[in-house]
Specification:
Blueprint lengths: L1 E6 L3 E5 L19 E12 L1 E2 L7 E5 L2 E5 L5 E7 L1 E2 L6 E7 L18 E8 L4 E3 L1 E8 L4 E8 L1 E3 H11 L5 E2 L2 E3 L12 E3 L18 E2 L10 E5 L4 E5 L5 E6 L5 E4 L6 E6 L4 E6 L4 E7 L1 E5 L11 E4 L5 E4 L5 E7 L1 E2 L6 E6 L2 E6 L4 E7 L1 E6 L2 E6 L2 E5 L14 H4 E2 L2 E5 L6 E6 L2 E10 L13 H9 L17 H16 L3 H9 L3 H7 L8 H8 L19 H14 L23 H10 L18 H16 L1
Antiparallel strand pairs: 1-2, 1-26, 3-40, 4-5, 5-6, 6-7, 8-9, 9-10, 10-11, 10-14, 12-13, 15-16, 16-17, 18-19, 19-20, 20-21, 22-23, 23-24, 24-25, 26-27, 27-28, 28-29, 30-31, 31-32, 32-33, 34-35, 35-36, 37-38, 39-40
Helix pairs in contact: 3-10, 4-7, 4-10, 6-7, 8-9
Length: 632
């Protein structure tokens, strides 16, 4: 996951990271170090390369870009001058000059030959030239001529754009925003999933000189527009209607960000600060911050219910959704939390803290990437290697060539991300390697004592994704439970989730993504679990991915998994709980089902507590018990 710090003074791209400092508790020391196996899967041979996404990677050969699959086979020929990662089944590419353009696009083209022109392609290399409606005036005939202008970027500004744009052009929730990659500041160049120009505002008089704020994607069913004349920001829904306006009438709101979890950051020019609003435009945290971090994937500012913000003294800390300080303001840097950890900087050195501000990794590193699936890239004394979530150097990570860790332009900048497939560089050329990470088992102190043995067994049975092997006492979210569902189904069936979805629905997960059933998530795990009938949305296109699950909801989900896997021979006569009347009708059979199987018992001998919380450790234990009942 990538993260970005924003400031009116600076916008800088950073890798996922999480950590901090405290003398409250010592770092955890596991019994033994984690292991990483490393093997080259595609020999370094390319002039440049990007990460794999949706099974394809953009690579450069003989001055041109194409795409390869994970076997190294060329699936899209080397014909592009620029190429970006696939997202939602589509990728943005560019070609130089006009020789590739149809004649109808060259007659009135205002750009000329010395430009790059932009296309959208699918995985079979079907191309759609990106164009927008324009017009020219013929002074001889005194007529206006309408035409389609290809989207272009001047050669002399392309490198500058690539340097400062920071976020690659990609589809997000069905829309592509190209503003960051244009030579001029056109108004609102957005394209839909078919590659057609999207006109956003139905009532243009409501938003004068509308311009989509740079780099912002369509998120939680809205775009963000700024009205530079009146000092206001408008949120525009997918139908082009104005859903919310903030500022104006003497109040100067000159910037805002997309919503995530119903919360958005806005910039109040009058007080020169950032604050937070809800979807009704109510101020939930007053503007008082100079900067903040957010995920470039989905504009998530509150991660693990904590936002990393910078105060007026240039010091970072963490706040909750009420504005209460939960991580002291004592850091030079505090990146977003992820997997319960955050990268922080103190006295010029980087370390890692948890959500209680305990130091997990000492402040002794020159740089840290942040965690992804339990792995973090660390830089110390000019050398790079991987560490686990306890701060231990991961055995085997030293086999990765040092050239692969660093950006060629800056030896202090980490370029590799701790993914399963990583880009490697040897002798100036690029290839790919596969890493298999085996994390150390969790400490007993990380969960309740009654849970430890079964949680460990669930991990040893490969039922728990590495990204979820943390924060065992916290409530599990709906999206995280979907990830747990996918892993459980794969282990129990012996088939990958793509095969299961295809067998059940006749569609691939990629096809499910393109149908966009939810406005607040395109997670493949969520869409797969939903397609298999295991977890549904809230209605009106809402999935509510960050919400926690109650015990009765968990019972219903577990029963659906069990029945999907053929476990139907279960006696579901009424269980004798004294609070049975509190169980909602949809969950009555499910509570009896999981109780009869011994998968999920009551909170006491007589009560089930249907509205009680359902933590990660509980989820992992019930997943293990259900798995055992399925495979027995």
């Amino acid at each position: 996951m990538n993260f970005k710090k924003t400031s009116r003074k600076l916008m800088s791209f950073v890798l996922a990271g999480f950590m901090s400092y405290s003398i409250v508790a010592p770092a955890i020391t596991p019994a033994e170090a984690s292991e990483m196996s490393y093997s080259v899967m595609i020999t370094p041979q390319y002039e440049d390369a990007d990460s794999f996404n949706e099974g394809l990677a953009a690579v450069k050969k003989d001055g041109k870009w194409g795409y390869i699959d994970e076997t190294g086979k060329t699936v899209i020929p080397f014909e592009y001058d620029y190429a970006f990662p696939f997202s939602e089944g589509l990728a943005v590419v560019a070609k130089y000059g006009t020789s590739h353009l149809d004649e109808k696009y060259t007659e009135h083209n205002i750009a000329g030959d010395d430009c790059y022109y932009w296309y959208v392609i699918d995985s079979k290399n079907n191309k759609k030239l990106l164009t927008y409606p324009s017009s020219t005036y013929n002074y001889e005939t005194k007529e206006s001529i309408d035409f389609e202008q290809p989207v272009y970027t001047f050669v002399e500004v392309m490198e500058e754009i690539l340097t400062y744009a920071m976020v690659p052009p990609e589809y997000h929730n069905g829309y592509l925003v190209m503003n960051a990659y244009l030579s001029e500041a056109w108004s609102s160049l957005i394209f839909d999933k078919n590659g057609d120009y999207y006109k956003q505002v139905n009532n243009s008089s409501s938003v004068k000189d509308s311009a989509l704020l740079p780099y912002y994607k369509f998120n939680e069913n809205s775009f963000v527009f700024a009205d530079s004349y009146e000092g206001k920001v408008c949120y525009i829904d997918a139908n082009g209607n104005i859903a919310l306006t903030i500022g104006g009438n003497g109040k100067h709101i000159t910037g805002a960000y997309p919503f995530n979890q119903g919360i958005a950051v806005y910039y109040d020019k009058d007080v020169d600060s950032y604050g937070f609003i809800d979807k009704s435009g109510n101020i939930i945290i007053s503007p008082q911050y100079d900067s903040f971090y957010y995920s470039t994937d989905n504009f998530q500012v509150f991660v693990d219910n904590i936002a990393s913000v910078e105060n007026k003294n240039g010091i970072y800390g963490g706040i909750d959704k009420t504005g209460k300080t939960v991580i002291p303001f004592e850091y030079q840097v505090l990146k977003n939390f992820h997997e319960g950890l955050a990268v922080a900087q103190k006295n010029g050195k980087y370390g890692v803290i948890d959500t209680n501000n305990n130091v997990i990794v000492p402040f002794e590193y020159d740089n840290l990437s942040g965690y992804s699936d339990g792995v973090c890239v660390a830089v110390q004394n000019g050398n790079a290697f991987c560490i686990d979530r306890y701060g231990n150097k991961i055995n085997g990570s030293d086999k990765i060539n040092q050239e692969s860790y660093f950006d060629s332009s800056d030896a202090g900048t980490i370029s590799v991300t701790p993914d399963e497939i990583i880009v490697i560089k040897e002798n100036g050329v690029y290839g790919f390697a596969k890493t298999i990470f085996t994390p150390d088992l969790p400490q007993k102190s990380e969960m309740d004592s009654w849970a430890y043995d079964e949680v460990v067994k669930s991990i040893e049975a490969d039922l728990i994704p590495v990204s979820l092997q943390n924060q065992y006492k916290t409530n599990i979210s709906r999206s995280d439970f979907a990830a747990l569902v996918v892993t459980l189904l794969e282990q129990a069936s012996g088939k990958d989730i793509n095969t299961l979805v295809k067998e059940e629905t006749g569609k691939t997960i990629s096809e499910l993504v393109k149908s966009y059933p939810f406005t607040d998530t395109t997670s493949s795990d969520v869409l797969a679990a939903n397609a298999l009938g295991i977890i549904s949305g809230r209605g009106n296109g809402i999935f509510d991915p960050y919400a926690s699950i109650t015990r009765q909801e968990a019972a219903a989900l577990l029963m659906r998994i069990g029945k999907y896997m053929g476990k139907t021979d279960v006696e579901t006569s009424s269980a004798s709980f004294t609070d049975s009347s509190a169980i909602q009708s949809y969950a009555i059979e499910a509570v009896n089902y999981v109780n009869a199987l011994g998968v999920m018992k009551g909170t006491s001998d007589t009560t089930f507590s249907p509205n009680g919380t359902y933590t990660r450790q509980q989820a992992y234990i019930t997943a293990l018990r259900l798995y055992n009942s399925i495979i027995e």
